[in-house]
Amino acid sequence: MSADLHLERTPEKRTGLGILWDGFSSALIGLTVTLTTLFKPKVTELYPMEKPTLTKAYRSAIALVHFDDIDTHDCIACSACELICPSDCIELTGEKMPGSKKKRVDFFEMDFSTCSLCGLCLAVCPTDTLKYSTGYDDASGSSAWVHDLLEPFDDPPMEELARRLEERAAKQREARAAARGDHPVKKPAAPKAAAAVAPAAPPEKEGGDA
User: Fold this and answer.
1) Cα dihedral value 174, 176, 178, 184, nearest 10
2) pTM for the whole thing?
3) Are 75 and 93 in contact (CB under 8 A)?
4) H helices within 92-204, ranges in order?
5) Over the range 12-50, which residues count as b (16 or more CB within 10 Å of their CB) and which as e?
6) Where are the alpha helices (H) located in the chain, listed in sequence order?
7) pLDDT higher at 14 or 5
């Protein structure tokens, strides 16, 4: 076909009033969004003047839990967290307390730069003394981001700590016994000794001997 079927659409010419209406309607839509948002609750926090509100699911570097009954943590240096850590970022050592079979941690560091926050260390801790901290503004100027977990604690002497732990263990045993309904076994009272009774004297015969 020799005829050219390609049709070009000529742009629609806008008058001055049309252009004015387009600008006014666009501004009206924008102002509607602004006014609607103006009366909604604020979600912007004035950091660092205000501390952010953290959810319960927030996870930061691990830390040791402080127990009020012993006024310190309860890490027994079992190394379960160190062994299960897939990132190999936990290192700790410990020694036995005097007069006790339990160990006490004396060195506990964690490299947060390689921690994956998987939570396995929290799951295997036998004393529930590990938790996630709520740090949100940590920063490091090097590739090694090491946290000393013992830094916030000032432990009492080993003898005093061993005494507190023993008292705590005794209370826990009593609580478990009370939960099971156990009662302390009372020893049977010893039988009272019978009073020695002297045999009665034979009655005297009247009239003397025959």
Assistant:
1) -50
2) 0.61
3) no
4) 120-124, 158-180
5) eeeeeeeeeeeeeeeeeeeeeeeeeeeeeeeeeeeeeee
6) 16-38, 80-84, 120-124, 158-180
7) 14
User: In whole angstroms, how far apart are CA 180 and each of 102, 155, 161, 175?
Assistant: 26, 34, 29, 9
Domains assigned to the chain: 62-158 (3.30.70.3270)
Does residue 157 have a cis bond before it (omega within 30 degrees)?
A: no
- Picking from 40, 70, 47, the residue whose alpha carbon sits closest to that of residue 160 is 70
H-helix or E-strand spanning residue 107: strand 103-111
- Which residues contact residue 81 at a Cβ distance below 8 angstroms, ignoring those fewer than 6 apart? 90, 92, 120, 121, 124, 125, 130
More confident residue, 188 or 91: 91
> The tokens of 158 are what?
């080993």
How far apart (Å, rounded) are the C-alpha atoms in residues 38 and 51? 23
Instruction: Name the pLDDT band for 14 (thresholds 50, 70, 90).
Output: low
Query: Of how many residues is the chain composed?
Result: 210
| Residues 61, 136: Cα–Cα separation, whole Å | 10
Query: What is the torsion angle, in degrees rounded to the nearest 10, for the CA atoms of residue 199, residue 203, residue 209 and residue 210?
Result: -120
Q: H helices of 39-187, where? A: 80-84, 120-124, 158-180
Percent of the chain with pLDDT over 90: 31
| Partners of residue 107 on adjacent β-strands | 93
